[in-house]
Amino acid sequence: MAYEFEPSHPALVTALLDRLAASEEDLVKVWQRLWLDPGYQTLDDALRAEVDFLFAYELQEEYGSAGVVTLEESQHLLTATRPMSETPPAAWALWIEVNGSLQNPIVAAHLADVLLTSRTDSSPDHAVATVNSYLSVAADGHVSSEHVALSLGRANSIARSRAMAEELAVRDTMIRLSGTFAVDPDKVGPALTLLAALSVPPRGGAFSEGERGDLERRLFALGNSYFTLVDEVFDTLARLAVDASALEIAQRWQVNQYLGLAEAEDNGMRKMHHAQSAADLAGSYGLRDLKGTAIVMMQSIDHDSMGWQSAVIDAPLSKNAFRAHLRRYRRARNWEYALMVFLASGSPSGDHEANVRSAERAAVGSIRALVSRTTYGTHGLPERSDGNFLDEEVVRNESFRLNFSGILLAHELEYVRDRFEPPSTRHVADWMAASFSSDPTLAEHFAESLALHWAGKFSDSARLAIPLIEAGARGLLLRLDEPLYRTQRGNSPGKFPTMDFYLEALSNRGLDPDWGRALRLALLSPGMNLRNRFAHGFDLSFTEAQSALLLRLAGLFCSMPVGMDESDLPAPTKSARGQLRRRPAWAWL
C-alpha cells in the first residue's frame, strides 16, 4: 500500500521521534526503541514503513581514505531498505515538513542529510544547515564518541565537496575533540577517524602553523600505545608526509612497531607473524637494513616455541589390501619381470583430473577456506600465505597420494627383493639397456640407487635418485632438441636451467599431465619439495617410502628408449602391420 501524505502526519512523526530520541546516544538505539513503542505501533502501515525507511540509511567511513564519511543504505540483512530514487513524492513531502521541526540533534542531522543526499533539497542553504546540524551533534554531551566522529567526518566531507566556508569550523572542532578522545582508551578509534580527516589540508588552503606537527605527534602517540592501530596510523602519517624523507620516517616507524611486537612476544607463532610482517613491509619499502633485522629475528625463533602439534589420523588397512596390491607380481618368474612390473606402474600421484574433482568436493563448506592460512617449510619458516584455496586442496590431495604411493612402492621393492635374490648392479644396468634401449649411464646409476635401497640404505639411495631424475629430464629434452642452455648474461655465466624449467618444457612437449604433477609435487614446492630440501641441505635423510618414490620417478626417465636408433628398427611384417591398424593406440610404458 503506497503512502499518502496527510497534514497531521508531520506533527505526529516529529513528536514521536523527539520523544524516543531524547536520551539515546546513536540512531540504532533510537530505532530499537521505536519498534517497541506503543505509539509507533498505532501508526498505519504505510506511514510506519516510511518512518522505517528513514533509519535504513547510515553513516559509513571509507577506511583507508582521508576520513571520508558517506550516507549509505544499510547492509544489514534484517534492515528494510530501498534506493532513495524509489521513495514516493508523498514521503518526501512528509520529511520536508518534519525537517526543521525536530529538536533532537541526532535525528535532525540524519534527516537533513537524507534530504541533501537524495537531492530532494540540495540548495547551498540546506547544505549549510546540514553541516551545522552535525556540529550540533558533536556539541551534545550525550552522544557517543563513535557517532560524534562519524558526524564530524560527514560534515567535513560535505563541506569539502562543496568548498564551503564551514569547513574551517568543522576542522577546529575535529582538532579539539581528537585531542580529547586520544587520551581516553575507550575513544581511540573515534580519535583516529578525526585525525584521518585532518590529514589533508583544507580545500583550497594549507595547514595552519604547527598543525601538521601536532597531528603527527598525536598519531605517533596513538600508534605507540595501541598496536592494533599501527597500520591505520601509518596510512594517515603517509598522507601527512610532505616529502620522501618524512614518508621514510613513517615507514621505519611502522616496521619498528612490528619488530617491537615480535621482540616482546614469548609465543613463537605470534613472534613469527610479527617478524614476518615487519620483513614484508620493509621489503616493500626498500628498507634493507630493517628487512635484514626482521629476517634474523625469524631465523632465531626456537622451533619448540612455535607450538607445533601433529594431527595423527589412524586409517586401519587390512593386510589383505597389501596382498591384493602385490598380486600383479605373482606371475613374475624372475627379477627382470618383477622390475618390468615396477617400472610399468602408473603415476604415483594418480589421475590429476580426478584429484581436482575430489579436491573440489572437499573444499565445499570447508572452514579452512574462511581463515588465514600460512604454509611453513621443514626449515620452520613461512613459505606462502593465503594462496588459492582450491589449488591448495589439490596439492594436499595429491601430496597425500604421493606419500601413500611411496609406502606401496616400498612394499613392492621389498617383495621383489625377498622373492628373488637381488641381482648385481651390472646385471640390472645391462638388462635395462638391452630391454628398454635406455641410456647406459642412467641405467647404471639407477641400478646403484636400487641396490642401495635393497640394502636398507634409503638415504643414500634417495641422494643418488634425486640428481638422477634431473639428469634424465635434461637428457630427454636434449634428445628432443629443446634449446635448454642459457648463455652468459652480463656477469652471469652460461648454465643449464633448473628442474622447474625442465618440467615446464616436458609438459609443453606432451608429457603425461599425471606424471608432470607427480614430478613437480614430489620434487618442488608446493608439495613434498624433496629435491630442493636436499639440494639446500635441509633434509639429508630420507625414509624408505621416500626412497621408493624417488626410484619410481627416476625409473620414468631411466627406462625411456633414448639410446634407440630409429633407423635400426626393422620394418614390421604384413601381419604385424594389420595388427597395428586394428589397435586404437600405442604408448611407451
Textual characterization of the structure:
The chain is mainly alpha-helical and 589 residues long. The chain is built from 27 helices and four strands. The protein has a two-stranded antiparallel ribbon with strand order 1-2. A two-stranded antiparallel sheet has the order 3-4. The longest helix is centred in the last third of the chain and has 31 residues, at 389-419.
The portion of residues assigned to helices is: 55-70%
Main beta-sheet annotation: 2 strands, antiparallel
Low-confidence parts lasting 5 or more residues at pLDDT below 50? 575-589
Estimated structural class: mainly alpha
For the secondary structure, the number of strands is 4
How many helices does DSSP assign?
Answer: 27
Mean pLDDT: 87
Alpha carbon gyration radius: 36 Å
Strand order of the largest sheet: 1-2
Fraction in beta strands? under 5%
Give the overall silhouette.
Answer: elongated
- In whole angstroms, the N-to-C terminal distance is 76 Å
